[in-house]
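Narrative summary of target 7.
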Amino acid sequence: MDIKIGSRGSDLAVKQTEAVAEKLKLHFPDDSFEIVRISTTGDRQTDKTLQSFGGLGVFIKEIEAALLDGRIDMAVHSAKDIPTQLQDGIGITAALLREDRDDALVSFGNIENVKIIGTGSARRESQARKIFPDAEFRQIRGNIYTRLEKVKSGEYDAVIMAKAALNRLNITGANVMDLPFICAAGQGIIAVETAGGRMRKYTELINDAAVMAELTAERAFLKYTGGGCHMPCGASAVYENGEITMSTYYHCGGNDIILKMTDADPELLGKIMAEKTIKSAEGK
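Modeled conformation, tokenized:
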């Protein structure tokens, strides 16, 4: 059988999709897996902030359309790019290959003296301001290499990136400082979407149950707080011995609300932590 897998066209997206295809090939050696690169609105419009034209969904809208009309059989995404509200008929049926979930400051000069920092994430900026109170934060868009070139050219002194992206693309030659942030929901996870229950025999064999539990908890927190790319909101869950321990971050009214809880039910954990967070934000 010839399986078509949809992917954004960036080097990082394709590398992640290739990793999924390799996993599938191990289980289904007689099938072929073709990667279909799909241009998305988010990739084309790099001169605007995500908030100005649709938020996270701009990275997957066209791919999900191809999934629904049958042009592709499954889609591979960075899990943090998937909105909490999925289109009808589409589900996340596999979560796997979680890389380093942390954030990092990347520079090509003296990393201790950065003055202009690039990031398009409200979550990253609000946490970074505690570490770099004197820095100027500017919006930055584009793929990994484009952002790094803007640092090399001197337009920015540094940029904040996911360590998973640096590792998967084997970026070298830069000065990297690990940042003690609570990550974005799904950061470092590769997620597979399918439509209408199709392809389940494929995705159930590559799904990592522990990673799926972490993703479910993190996305639940995001969903019930109403957070997203426009909100300073993060969630980092760790599955161990049948339980999930999650740390969450929410910035509201100049205050950081940080919680840590453990439960066996990932969806319930995310919901409870979101409710506690909202109550705290409302002063209750």
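The chain has a mean pLDDT of 92.
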